[in-house]
Structures are given as structure tokens and as C-alpha cells.
Design goal:
Elements: E1 10-13, H1 19-30, E2 34-39, H2 43-55, E3 59-64, H3 70-83, E4 89-92, H4 108-136, E5 139-144, H5 157-177, E6 182-189, H6 197-200, H7 204-212, H8 222-233, E7 244-247
Parallel strand pairs: 1-2, 1-4, 2-3, 4-5, 5-6, 6-7
InterPro entries: NAD(P)-bd_dom_sf (IPR036291), SDR (IPR050259), SDR_fam (IPR002347)
Protein name: 3-oxoacyl-[acyl-carrier protein] reductase
GO molecular function, one term: oxidoreductase activity
Length: 254
């Protein structure tokens, strides 16, 4: 496969067929990046995102891969390399399913399984793109976390614990890769509409209570999160690494 027209940096966004991921690829494409829409099973939705980007003059391709499968991840990165070149920006957004249960109700298989799958996906994706970033002397890695890592909510022990582990993983990777010109940061949203399992679990009354507790008086949209991701994915954040951006409208303030 020959390279597509040369242009902006190559950005791979996992779980990009809908929600936050789709908002991210659209925004990055609008800012001149050549974007890769990763999906696991939602091919039609991924194709629709690609078509919407191309219709406005952007460059995009869809690539299927289960981000918890090492061979699939390596195959995806190789496919991107053949079509566009090395991945220079990784936004790891893919949602790994998890149980919504209290500590009393949850089993170790449910909690430990979420931890293992969350870290496996982040580890595999990072391992796959770092060699190319190292060779090019440039890289932006952005992981999607959650406010639940710092602000517990009933039933969210699996997600919050796994994303807390991801945040610490990001700091270690940032420390090690900084000298290579690679930055590593986390964007940690609060509730985001009804785009994730966690947010879909919020009934309307609970969403209204969450909005009332937020300084800005509303919960986030996918576009709110995408703008923070785009900052970390671009050159303006070049001297920022190992940080977590809380995109929660003031729901939690450190």
C-alpha cells in the first residue's frame, strides 16, 4: 500500500467510532492531522466517521483491532505505517467493559479482570507506537482517564481503580520517554453525556445532581473532552508531560 498524500502528523485514536473518540478524530482532522479511526466491532459507525472527515477535506482511515490483543495491535500499527507512516500521536480512548457493582457485590474476577484488561490495552498500544516515535524523535501519547480515579462514585470501583492504575502508569512512561521527545499525559473527564457505560448508568435525576455540583453548571460534552485531548496531542503542550487534565467543569478541584 502506498503512502497517502503527505500532510499533518499521523494520529491514531482507539475506540474512535463514537462518543469521545469520534469527537477527538474529527477535531484532530480539522486541525490538519491525518487520523486513524480504530474500532473493534462498529465498522459502519467507524466508516461514517471517516466519511464525515473526508467530506470536509480531511484525511482519515478506519482500522479494526481489539486493543487487548497483542497481534491485532501490532497488525493495526503496521497497517497505519504502510498507509500513512509512523504513528506520531496516540490517543488511547478505547473503553474496556467493566462491572458496575459495589465492593460488597463485585468479585475479584470482575475487579481484577478490569484492571488486567485496562493495563494490557494501554501497555500493548504504547509498546506498539513507541519505537516509531523514538526513531522520529517526536511523540504525543494521551490516555483517557476519569474523575472517578480521584472522586469515587457508588458502583464504579472497577473503573475508578483501573483508571487510577493507568494514571500512575502514564507518569512512569512519561518519565522514561521524555528524553526521546515523547510526552505522555492523561485527560480525565467527569460525566460526559451518555457516551460511556458509566454515564449511561446515570439516570436523568442523577445527571441533574451532577450538573448542580459542577461549577460550570453542566456535565461535559464529547467536544469538551476532545479539546483537552487536542491540546495534549499538539505542539502547544510540548513542555508538559506526566500530567492529568481534569475535564470536569469544576466537579472536583485539586
Amino acid at each position: 500500500m502506498t503512502n497517502v498524500q503527505q500532510g499533518g502528523r499521523v494520529a491514531l485514536v482507539t475506540g474512535a467510532s463514537r462518543g469521545i473518540g469520534a469527537a477527538v478524530v474529527r477535531l484532530l482532522a480539522s486541525r490538519g492531522m491525518r487520523v486513524v479511526v480504530n474500532y473493534r466491532s462498529s465498522r459502519d459507525e467507524a466508516d461514517d466517521v471517516v466519511a464525515s472527515i473526508r467530506s470536509t477535506g480531511g484525511q482519515a482511515m478506519a482500522v479494526q483491532a481489539d486493543v487487548t490483543d497483542g497481534a491485532a495491535v501490532l497488525g493495526m500499527v503496521e497497517q497505519v505505517r504502510a498507509a500513512m507512516g509512523e504513528v506520531e500521536v496516540l490517543v488511547h480512548n478505547a473503553l474496556i467493559p467493566y462491572a458496575i457493582k459495589s465492593f460488597d457485590e463485585i468479585s475479584w474476577d470482575e475487579l481484577g479482570g478490569k484492571l488486567e484488561q485496562e493495563m494490557r490495552a494501554a501497555f500493548l498500544m504504547t509498546k506498539a507506537v513507541v519505537p516509531g516515535m523514538t526513531e522520529g524523535g517526536y511523540g504525543r501519547i494521551v490516555y483517557l482517564g476519569t474523575v472517578l480515579s480521584r472522586r469515587p462514585r457508588a458502583g464504579m470501583i472497577a473503573l475508578g481503580t483501573a483508571k487510577a492504575a493507568l494514571s500512575q502508569f502514564a507518569r512512569f512512561v512519561a518519565q522514561e520517554l521524555g528524553a526521546r521527545g515523547i510526552t505522555v499525559n492523561v485527560v480525565a473527564p467527569g460525566p460526559v453525556g451518555e457516551t460511556t457505560i458509566a454515564d449511561a448508568a446515570l439516570d436523568q435525576e442523577h445527571q441533574q445532581r451532577q450538573a448542580a455540583q459542577t461549577a460550570l453548571g453542566r456535565i461535559a460534552s464529547p467536544d469538551d473532552v476532545a479539546r483537552a485531548v487536542a491540546f495534549y496531542a499538539g505542539d502547544d503542550s510540548g513542555f508538559i508531560t506526566g500530567t492529568t487534565a481534569p475535564v470536569n467543569g469544576g466537579l472536583a478541584m485539586d
